[in-house]
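Fill in residues.
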């Protein structure tokens, strides 16, 4: 059951998002089964407008990740409050593979690390990111391991030689 404070915050948040990103599709979700209260779907843009609203509403950025589809990527941002009226928003942004989304690191500095991880595993380059480089894989790696087309590379061949 939602508290009165959560209901109020969800109404305010839904209104703010509808005004700032009218192209977005906002839907309610069952927190008990999905782990978030609202879901926002966007195509191509609006990531910074959403991030600014979330900051203004005193939300924090929990995580940024992505999913690789045949013709596009889906960036996933999870925001939540850190007070007694916990509310979580999941934002999904579908982008073509050749588009570089804008970084939200100027709004949420923690995104510097999260976006670096997305780059490291998916190869998604964020525009205006202050330090976009690999975070886990070797700097000279010639692969992005979470892409659907990930296959043999010079590094996986070396690992196979060691393990076999």
């Amino acid at each position: 059951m939602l508290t009165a404070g959560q209901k109020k915050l969800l109404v305010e948040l839904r209104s703010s998002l509808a005004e700032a990103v009218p192209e977005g599709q906002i839907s309610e979700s069952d927190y008990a089964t999905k782990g978030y209260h609202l879901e926002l779907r966007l195509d191509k843009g609006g990531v910074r407008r959403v991030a600014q609203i979330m900051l203004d509403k005193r939300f924090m950025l929990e995580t940024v990740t992505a999913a690789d589809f045949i013709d596009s990527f889906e960036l996933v941002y999870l925001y939540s409050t850190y007070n007694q009226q916990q509310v979580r928003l999941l934002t999904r942004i579908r982008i073509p593979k050749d588009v570089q989304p804008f970084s939200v690191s100027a709004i949420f500095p923690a995104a510097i690390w999260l976006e670096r991880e997305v780059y490291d595993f998916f190869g998604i380059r964020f525009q205006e990111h202050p330090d976009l480089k690999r975070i886990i894989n070797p700097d000279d790696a010639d692969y992005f391991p979470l892409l659907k087309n990930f296959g043999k590379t010079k590094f996986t061949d070396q690992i196979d030689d060691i393990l076999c």
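The mean pLDDT is 90.
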